[in-house]
Amino acid sequence: MTDRSLPSAEPADAAERRSRKPVVVYPNGTLAAPDLDRLGKARETLEKIDEVIVPPRDGRTFTVPKGYFFRVVSVDGPQVGDLNLWNANDLNERFFSGKTRALHATHVSVGDRLWSTLPSLRPMATITHDTLAWYGWDDDGAGVHDVIGTRCDPYTNRLLGGGDYHNCCHSNLCRALSSARGMSFKEAEPHVHDVLNVFMCTGFTKDTHQYFMKASPVRPGDYLEFFAEIDLLGALSACPGGECGNSHSSDAAACYPLKVEVFRPDMDLLSGWPFPRRNGYVSPV
């Protein structure tokens, strides 16, 4: 019987197997690019129609009509946020972080889109401005605004630490959705999903390839801006990790509020905009 505790022997052609060239699954240029010049002209006409303050270690919802813009804004101090998006008219269509990561990259910025779940698979929002775009990739391989981390949650917190913490981003998002839609917590929870980590600075360690976080470069006044491609319901949690430079899922970190601003453009400038329909694939079965 083979001893499964022993490492497998390296085959004679190991070097050859490792040397195969990587192939980008969805190369740049595969997707039709959004017309950022046209969106830029629309941005010049923005009129703020609403704002929502998300308290530290808490969550709030907001709505954005199709064709409008919204921003997640840093106020008071460095703070990261966990963002969920749904089709405002159908909670079953929601943000698909995994496919967004596959279509774009581990971190997103201007021109990238947030895609919805199967079977709809269409752009929900397009990123139109990012005051942290200058950050790029640092010496640790970290970037800002990731679609890697799933969200801090009380279940993993209990698994790893043995205690119960009720202000994880997962819980904040559940409570926010529950309040907005008149659901119980248990009814809302299955709709909460993997997030866009707004302002969060993250990467993978070079030796063990583990997901890591470091202090966010965000400062008051920084923002990430989106164009709504469909009617959106959003929920944002001001993460209990604050800037996420030390820990998360606790009351130890300094935390600050976040602000969501919603803007109406001159809609005449978007006349004929190709707002996306649900994916047209039809199963033969």
From TrEMBL:
Domain DUF1989: 53-233
Region entry Disordered, spans: 1-21
InterPro entries: DUF1989
Domain of life of the organism encoding this protein: Bacteria
One matching Pfam family: DUF1989
Record's protein name: DUF1989 domain-containing protein
Organism: Pseudorhizobium endolithicum
